[in-house]
Design a protein that fits this description.
It is a single chain. The protein is mainly beta. The protein has a domain at 48-189: Sulfite Oxidase, Chain A, domain 2 (Alpha-Beta Complex), CATH 3.90.420.10. 8% of the residues lie in helices and 30% in strands. It binds ligand MTE and molybdenum atom. Molybdenum atom (MO) is lined by residues 35, 81-83, 165-166. Residues 1-30 are annotated as: Disordered. It comes from Candidatus Cryosericum odellii.
Length: 204
């Protein structure tokens, strides 16, 4: 067979519509900058409770030990900051948010449509419930197989690869389920309520 072998034709070889890996107007960096508006908090894991409240049957919580017992998941994901840099192919470890909700026996009210992620600090960010329950949305405590450092949100941060990285609340401490969307820290300062990098939903 020669090297000029013809490409087979047929539907399975038709070019697939793909989107570029890097969203519009982002440039790729290999460093991991930190973007933090507040003082980096110190977190005592022995007194840590991750809380669930708002549009739920009953507010509940999970200790750090209970959280560590949730099925472990690792995922390679890209990270897109609204200020224009993207970091590709980082490996995160933690648990899928939906596995956490199941383990905590959180029963969402039928009115729950959005969620506000709260932090140990004053930072907050809102997202649609669908995004929180997506296949790739995690609570993470490992970055490239090492414990997530304090400056990057350790011990625990939210990771929502489908949205701009300001939705990845660092030092995250709970989810408040909402019937109506409400702006979080950056969203009330002009950032978009949703924040899809593929649609360039940067500012509202
Ligand atoms: N608590 C908290 N979480 C936060 C932020 C913040 O200032 N405080 N900044 C957000 C923004 S704008 C980005 S781009 C990412 C940056 O994460 P990094 O500092 O680990 O790179 O965290 C997000 N989560
Ligand atoms: Mo950001």
């Amino acid at each position: 067979m020669g090297i000029f072998q013809r490409r087979p034709s047929g539907p399975e070889f038709a070019p697939q519509p793909t989107r570029p890996r890097v969203p519009p107007n982002q440039s790729v960096t290999t460093s991991f900058p930190t973007l933090t508006v507040e003082q980096i908090p110190s977190v005592d894991m022995n007194n840590f409770t991750f809380r669930f409240w708002g549009e739920v049957r009953e507010p509940t919580g999970m200790t750090w030990q209970q959280l560590m017992a949730v099925k472990h998941t690792t995922m390679t994901a890209d990270f897109h900051c609204v200020t224009g840099f993207s970091m590709l192919g980082t490996e995160w470890g933690g648990a899928l948010v939906r596995d956490v909700l199941e383990a905590a026996h959180v029963q969402l009210s039928t009115s729950a449509r959005f969620v506000m992620a709260h932090c140990i600090t004053e930072f907050t960010t809102n997202l649609p419930l669908d995004a929180l329950l997506a296949d790739d949305t995690m609570l993470v405590w490992e970055w490239n197989r090492l414990p997530l450092t304090n400056e990057h949100g350790g011990p625990l941060r939210l990771l929502v690869p489908s949205l701009y990285a300001w939705k990845d609340a660092k030092w995250v401490s709970g989810f408040e389920f909402l019937a109506e969307d409400r702006p979080g820290y950056w969203e009330s300062r002009g950032y978009h309520m949703h924040g899809d990098p593929w649609k360039e939903e940067r500012y509202g």
